[in-house]
Amino acid sequence: MPIELVIATRNKKKVEEIRRILEGLPATFYSIDDFPGCPEVEEDTDTFEGNAAKKALTVARFSGRPAIADDSGLEVYALNRAPGVFSARYAGPDSNDRKNRERLLSEMNGIEENKRGARFVCYVALAFPDGKVETFEGFVEGSLGTEPRGSSGFGYDPIFYPAGYDRTFAEMNAGEKDALSHRGMALKKLREYLSG
Fold this sequence. Notes:
Blueprint: E1 3-7, H1 12-21, E2 27-31, H2 48-63, E3 67-76, E4 82-83, H3 97-107, E5 117-127, E6 133-144, E7 160-162, H4 174-180, H5 182-195
Parallel strand pairs: 1-2, 1-3
Antiparallel strand pairs: 3-4, 3-5, 5-6, 6-7
Helix pairs in contact: 4-5
């Protein structure tokens, strides 16, 4: 019998990515929009794992169905792992992907190539209405470019080069990125858990 899962995000690109990676599972997927009145969750914990669990639990309890949420971001070693949990709002209250990238690139201005190391981090939480939560993590090491390249993906994808590649995530097709990405890794672990 298929499991019913609510994808606990309003980010359409993220919903697309999650559905694509979990394709083939015996599951019926819902989005937050299928549950009018679902509360907005403030991501105010200081870890990716805590934010993912908080979002998933809130949506699971509201919808009465298991919910999947992720929290992910970029950690830049030269900046003491910033932007970290503030990745999505790095440029301030009215931030968007472009402004976040611009702020990060300006902070990295003048930092030489061999000191531009960074990693993408993702925690996916699967929460049940009874309060049980399972979490799955994924990481991908790489480095930051000096200007955006590529038009696919979102967030920091146009400036992130995964280790061993001379193309950014935004220059890769969906299948290539899913095979390498932090979210892909975390969701594959979730997939194994649900298949088991």
